[in-house]
Amino acid sequence: MVFRRLLAVAAVPLLLIGLSSCQSDPTVAAYVGSDEITVDQIDGYFDQAAQDPLSSELVAQNRAEVKPRLVSMLVFIELLREAAKDAGVPVTAGEVAQVKAQIEPQRQMVTGDLALLPLDQMAEFQAHRLKLSQWASQGAASQGAAEKKYSDAVQAAEGDNPVTVNPRYGKFDLEKVPQLGSSDSAVKPASPDAL
1-15, 107-121, 167-181 — which one is most confidently predicted on average? Predict the structure, then answer.
């Protein structure tokens, strides 16, 4: 009996070490389920945003907050991708390319955290957000019902793909990311309030 207790006591720290080490890689900014967002990605996007005339002022004014915001945006893209896939409306590469072509000519009008993303990620974000918004609006009795369907889908995606953020990038808060978008959100600039 004493031997079993000692074995159990010894096993718990080993189990905790095993669990925490797989989620504490210093080269990873965040995990979404088993998918990784790397520190190198975040550093690269930060450098691009700092040099891009569209976002350089935002970076200069909020330097310490930019990397955590980038992490949150990339986590949200992953959750949108999973939610769209689970809803049976996955976004194709062609749809992302179409949204990119629509955004590119008016990219200088984009504001808020969305402006921190490179064009490809901005297009991916908007394509997934648009498709999931359209799916949520189909058959919905009201805007409120559509918003709930959309939010529930994203929350379910987070439940199925737990988010773990490297502490140096703060915490991911699903309540602080963009919610249901209008059907034309892919081609209109985002307002600062929306992000």
Answer: 107-121
CATH architecture of 28-194: Orthogonal Bundle (1.10)
* pLDDT at 86 exceeding the cut of 60: yes
Sequence-distant (6+) residues with CB within 8 A of 90 are 81, 84
Is it the case that residue 185 has pLDDT exceeding 50?
no
Q: How far apart are CA 51 and CA 40, in angstroms?
A: 17
In the chain, where are the structural domains located? Answer: 28-194
